[in-house]
Amino acid sequence: PMCFFPTEDNPLLQNRPTYLLPSQFKGSKDVKVEIVKDFEHRIGITGEMDEAEMGNSIHDIFYLIECKLEEVKVFNIVDNFNLAGRINVNDLLKAVVNLQGYIQALKPVTIYRELPLSIETNGNILTGAPDLVLEFTDGLFLFDYKSYPGKTSEILNPESSHFAGIYSGQLDAYSHMLETTLHKKIIKKLIYYSVIGKIVEIE
């Protein structure tokens, strides 16, 4: 049988959709950023640490937000990322409990953790999985987790490279995907800065 090998000048290849990720969408300095919850708690960190590596470990732990976490379980996840001794496990566990309490007080109808989403938009495919979505009868709360360990003033300063508003494009993309898929409006777009213990709203 004849085999077909696509080439760059093949029309099938030229018309294939581009896959886009929410993280590719740029944010804005002009959005309003407000702290809506201050847990007055920080996760203790010792020495230099790769922020992305730390973020991955924290994401894995917060994926278990609906579970009753124990110190041993949290330690094992941290240890898998070779971060044992550099992240205070008890502080991390407290950060999880803080978010659990915040969610319970809101009384959502449904909780989605890393809900896989994929929609077509302008001939392209937008795909991704938001960290946390709370569904209510009248709409949705969208959460994104960030592990920035610095000063609170930096996430509120539009001139800072750590300004929370730089993630507004990402959150807008997730919002569009969620509203298209779940047919409910986004009520709040939130970022949980777990290391510094703050929840901020992006408007």
Order of helices and strands: HEEHHHEEEEEHHEE
SS-based class: alpha+beta
Shape, principal axes of CA atoms: globular
Distance between the termini: 58 Å
General description of the model:
The chain is α+β, with helices and mostly antiparallel strands and 203 residues long. It has helices at 11-14, 51-62, 71-80, 89-106, 152-156, 168-182, and strands at 19-20, 33-38, 110-113, 117-121, 124-128, 132-136, 139-146, 186-193, 198-202. Helix content is 32%, strand content 24%. Mean pLDDT is 90; it is low at 1-5. Helix 3 (71-80) crosses helix 4. The strands form two sheets. It has a six-stranded mixed β-sheet. A three-stranded mixed β-sheet has the order 1-5-4, with helices on one face.
Give a short synopsis of this structure.
Helices cover 32% and strands 24% of the residues.
Topology overview:
Elements (H helix, E strand, L loop, with lengths): L10 H4 L4 E2 L12 E6 L12 H12 L8 H10 L8 H18 L3 E4 L3 E5 L2 E5 L3 E5 L2 E8 L5 H5 L11 H15 L3 E8 L4 E5 L1
Parallel strand pairs: 1-5, 7-8
Antiparallel strand pairs: 2-9, 3-6, 4-5, 6-7, 8-9
Helix pairs in contact: 2-3, 3-4
Give the key terms.
6-stranded mixed beta sheet; 9 strands; 32% helix; 3-stranded mixed beta sheet
